């Protein structure tokens, strides 16, 4: 039996080239908790999560690694149960499940490497490419030149679907920006909006979403917190615009409840928050049973491998942030980010998740030397 013999953690804090406004927050760094697991058979698996400045590496090292050390590396689900059971008081809170997700992804990396298969192949998929949709419009700026440039650049790469940021300026500015994008991409392109939970009350949300509903919005993401599903239902009923949320849900059971009460039209799922591979697949399967699609939350290298094994990915494809805009800085921890060819993410065929980690960069950006 292959056992876990070592667990290392790194907290990589990568500076943004300029402060970024996300909803009402100003962000100066992107932070990533990286976990590297070694087994008695000499296999190495790597996982990570988006830590958002929280001490997730510390949680892994102090509260989870001692529980997992010496246990079998052949059953990620068993390890997830152990580490969450040990931390039962916080077991369904996003910070703790994000930590468990990083461990789970690392263990699945090992499981697939043991079979000499990519994760997608290990999960039974033969898919080699998946469409992506480009996230645009983070920087409002004094005019719309940058937004127009982002859209045209994505179209030149063969990307046909988009999601743009809203809510960081006036409703009139959002209307102008959405109108410009719709005119460029044409009437058939899927165009979604991300509100970053900034719409506040229902009255304001209805006013802002109604203003832009004429542009055939595929969905408005995160108009409210996940706990405010009743407001999401009311917003959908009042505007006719589909709603999407779920990236902060901490288990497949939470996703099942959201779906049961019809609080979302497109379920958002983040494998690096919800608990890892099994929980991601369980949540997407639940959405499928309810006749709904799901959308991923960045992490294209990981989500491409998992989405390949599901039948109900959002028609626009995987969420994708172009590294050249320096919004998500994950690419700074890699030798090479995922390849995009003709609007599709090209899945790695290498064993495991096929991520080429730059350990010198991880150490440079990390507090752990």
TrEMBL record:
Domain Mandelate racemase/muconate lactonizing enzyme C-terminal per the UniProt entry, residue ranges: 144-242
Record-given protein name: Unannotated protein
SMART domains: MR_MLE (SM00922)
Keyword terms: Magnesium, Metal-binding
Gene Ontology biological process terms in this record: carbohydrate catabolic process
GO MF annotation: an example: magnesium ion binding
Pfam families membership: MR_MLE_C, MR_MLE_N
InterPro entries xrefs: Enolase-like_C_sf, Enolase-like_N, Enolase_C-like, Mandelate_racemase_C, Mandelate_racemase_N_dom, RHMD-like
Keyword NAD: no
Cofactor(s) required, per the database record: Mg(2+)
Keyword Repeat: no
PANTHER family noted in UniProt: ENOLASE SUPERFAMILY, MANDELATE RACEMASE, MITOCHONDRIAL ENOLASE SUPERFAMILY MEMBER 1
């Amino acid at each position: 039996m292959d056992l876990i013999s070592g667990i290392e953690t790194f907290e990589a804090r990568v500076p943004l080239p300029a402060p970024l406004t996300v909803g009402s927050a100003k962000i100066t760094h992107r932070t990533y908790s990286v976990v590297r697991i070694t087994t008695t058979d000499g296999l190495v698996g790597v996982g990570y999560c988006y830590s958002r400045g929280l001490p997730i590496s510390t949680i892994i090292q102090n509260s989870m690694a001692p529980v997992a050390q010496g246990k079998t590396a052949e059953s990620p689900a068993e390890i997830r149960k152990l580490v969450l059971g040990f931390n039962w008081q916080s077991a369904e809170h996003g910070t703790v499940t994000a930590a468990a997700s990083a461990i789970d992804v690392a263990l699945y990396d090992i499981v697939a490497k043991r079979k000499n298969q990519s994760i997608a192949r290990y999960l039974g998929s033969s898919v080699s490419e998946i469409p992506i949709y480009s996230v645009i419009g983070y920087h409002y700026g004094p005019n719309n030149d940058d937004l127009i440039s982002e859209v045209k650049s994505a179209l030149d790469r063969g990307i046909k679907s988009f999601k743009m940021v809203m809510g960081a300026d006036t409703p009139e500015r959002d209307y102008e920006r959405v109108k410009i994008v719709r005119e460029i991409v044409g009437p058939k392109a899927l165009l979604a909006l991300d509100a970053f939970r900034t719409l506040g009350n229902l009255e304001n949300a209805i006013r802002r979403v109604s203003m832009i509903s004429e542009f055939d919005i595929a969905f408005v993401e995160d108009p409210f917190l996940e706990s405010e599903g009743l407001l999401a239902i009311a917003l959908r009923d009042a505007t006719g615009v589909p709603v999407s949320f779920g990236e902060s849900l901490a288990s497949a059971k939470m996703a099942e409840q959201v779906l049961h009460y019809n609080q979302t039209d497109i379920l958002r799922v983040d494998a690096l928050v919800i608990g890892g591979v099994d929980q991601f697949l369980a949540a997407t399967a639940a959405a499928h049973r309810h006749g709904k699609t799901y959308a991923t939350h960045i992490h294209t290298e990981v989500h491409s491998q998992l989405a390949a094994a599901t039948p109900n990915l959002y028609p626009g494809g995987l969420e994708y942030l172009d590294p050249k805009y320096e919004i998500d800085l994950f690419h700074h921890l890699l030798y090479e980010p995922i390849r995009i060819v003709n609007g599709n993410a090209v899945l790695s065929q290498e064993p495991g998740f096929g991520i080429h980690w730059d350990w010198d960069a991880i150490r440079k950006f990390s507090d752990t030397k």
